[in-house]
UniProtKB/TrEMBL annotation:
<protein>
    <submittedName>
        <fullName>SDR family oxidoreductase</fullName>
    </submittedName>
</protein>
<dbReference type="InterPro" id="IPR016040">
    <property type="entry name" value="NAD(P)-bd_dom"/>
</dbReference>
<dbReference type="Pfam" id="PF13460">
    <property type="entry name" value="NAD_binding_10"/>
</dbReference>
<feature type="domain" description="NAD(P)-binding">
    <location>
        <begin position="7"/>
        <end position="191"/>
    </location>
</feature>
<dbReference type="InterPro" id="IPR036291">
    <property type="entry name" value="NAD(P)-bd_dom_sf"/>
</dbReference>
Length: 215
């Protein structure tokens, strides 16, 4: 299975790319925004393609051509305003879904945010525009024809991964290492129990593979 990682230069995306590169089961193509990012990836032996989520659906579809699955881990970042959140985290995400449908890439894994499905949980959040974008991007994905999995991680840390998580439809806000998120994103690719499902994800006591099978 060849996997396109959208947002490959992000902190989670970089880890996903590395894990896929080391895998015997998957191959990876990294989608990034500029030549400098692509060069760094290519120098490390990773196939890289340049495309912009603020560009056209056709541009994204061209980057996706020949892949079997998409992992969307892109984001506008914490230093941009609501306008970029709208353009990248919502519209860019939806355009990538439309691109996948257009060329027949059916498997799609989305990195969302914990409790994005529950409006009441972020009614007074300081990052409400981001949560709104995630909420409606997720709804668009669920309404699509894609074989989706939506992973909603809690607060992200740079702690070393443990290989153990808690995964459920509804979880209290907690943290999780980015490394464990990356491993989970890859683990769901062929885990049929996660097909057309969404779940919150935080650090826990259950091995990743077992947690996903027990959803």
């Amino acid at each position: 299975m060849k996997v396109l990682v959208i947002g490959a230069n992000g902190q989670i995306g970089q880890q996903v790319v590395h894990l896929l590169q080391e895998s015997d089961e998957y191959t990876v193509r990294a989608m990034v925004r500029n030549e400098a990012q692509a060069t760094v990836l290519q120098d490390s032996g990773v196939e890289a393609v340049i495309a912009n989520l603020e560009g056209s659906i056709d541009e994204i579809a061209t980057a996706m051509q020949g892949c079997d699955a998409v992992i969307f881990s892109a984001g506008s970042g914490g230093h941009t305003g609501p306008d970029k959140t709208l353009l990248v985290d919502l519209d860019g995400a939806v355009k990538s879904m439309e691109a996948a449908e257009k060329i027949g890439v059916h498997r799609y894994v989305m990195v969302s945010a914990i409790q994005a499905h529950n409006r009441e949980s972020w009614a007074n959040s300081p990052i409400k525009p981001y949560m709104v974008a995630k909420h409606f991007a997720d709804k668009a994905l669920m309404a699509s024809n894609l074989n989706y999995t939506i992973v909603r991680p809690g607060a992200l840390t740079n702690d070393a991964g443990t290989g153990h998580i808690s995964a459920s439809e509804n979880l209290q806000r907690d943290s999780i290492p980015r490394e464990d998120v990356a491993h989970t994103l890859i683990a769901v690719l062929n885990e049929e129990n996660t097909y057309r499902r969404s779940f919150d994800l935080v650090a826990g006591d259950t091995a990743i593979s077992d947690a996903l099978k027990n959803l």
